[in-house]
């Protein structure tokens, strides 16, 4: 029997139940993998709590993981038992084994560990599309990255710096500030002690930022708009503090004809070619040293509730993994 963490009724961390589940053989076009490491993300909390629409209960949370192919279903020719693989796929990740469509898998290069692969498929691909597709960060751009010491934040700061940007990050503590500075931030703002809008204006000498990457949501809005230069881009990609409230579009004109977008990863890897492009770019950035994957916390799969509690309580930095 496979062991998995399931939600029978949405709610708090106590809704996560570690139990045995029956996993059938892989179907047409599917691959069965034995998971070695599972990435933990805020989107897992959104599904568990019911903030995001969920399938019929019970369901298994988790979107990214890495492991080894143990068997393949009919019609699968490009993966074989023993292959090292990783994926980003909607739900089902918090498990020791799972069946998954083969076209959602990518092969891990020899120099990428299972642990790295498990946090690069959602977090790494998210940073890839944010910095290369949603807004193409180039030398001389000034960028603001909220939650700069988080799993996505640390990768975003490193990659933006490698691309030649001037990087400003917001964090919640001195320890997190030190971590962000060590990972590419040129300036760090302690948002609980400082007015981040005023500090951005001071740091930039009122020139403000070309782009704001905001995965925090309600707490940092509308301040993020005030940090943008005319015709700058507000990128809202997460809701760690709650959803951004509805606002009139004319608000964008009041801040200088701003652009705003609410992207999601699925729309940037909608085709197999896009998935492979993103994964290849992310893996290459790790192998060449542009990205260092900071895994600061590892929990046993059965302790997923504690892991999510720590994430929600802001007690974590960098990436978090679960070990089956």
Topology summary:
Elements: E1 2-7, E2 16-21, E3 30-40, H1 42-49, E4 59-60, E5 64-72, E6 84-88, E7 97-101, E8 105-107, H2 114-134, E9 142-145, H3 151-162, E10 166-171, H4 174-181, E11 187-190, H5 196-203, E12 209-214, H6 223-226, E13 228-236, H7 250-254, E14 259-261, H8 272-287, E15 295-300, H9 304-312, E16 319-323
Parallel strand pairs: 9-10, 9-12, 10-11, 12-13, 13-14, 15-16
Antiparallel strand pairs: 1-2, 1-4, 3-5, 3-7, 3-16, 5-6, 6-8
Helix pairs in contact: 2-3, 2-8
Q: Mean pLDDT across all residues, rounded? A: 95
How many β-strand stretches?
A: 16
Summarize the helix and strand pattern as letters.
EEEHEEEEEHEHEHEHEHEHEHEHE
Largest sheet composition: 7 strands, mixed
Question: End-to-end span in angstroms?
Answer: 13 Å
| Helix/strand/pairing category | alpha/beta
Number of helices: 9
Low-pLDDT stretches: none
Which CATH architecture of the largest domain would you pick?
Alpha-Beta Complex
Measured as a percent range, the helix fraction is: 25-40%
CATH class assignment of the largest domain: Alpha Beta
| Total domain count | 2
CATH topology name of the largest domain, in short, is Quinone Oxidoreductase, Chain A, domain 1
| Rg from alpha-carbon coordinates | 20 Å
Give me the oligomer status. Answer: single chain
Strand portion, in percent?
Answer: 25-35%
The CATH superfamily of the largest domain is identified as Medium-chain alcohol dehydrogenases, catalytic domain
Protein name: Zinc-containing alcohol dehydrogenase superfamily
InterPro entries: ADH-like_C (IPR013149), ADH-like_N (IPR013154), ER (IPR020843), GroES-like_sf (IPR011032), NAD(P)-bd_dom_sf (IPR036291), QOR-like (IPR047618), Quin_OxRdtase/zeta-crystal_CS (IPR002364)
Enzyme class: oxidoreductase
Domain Enoyl reductase (ER): 11-322
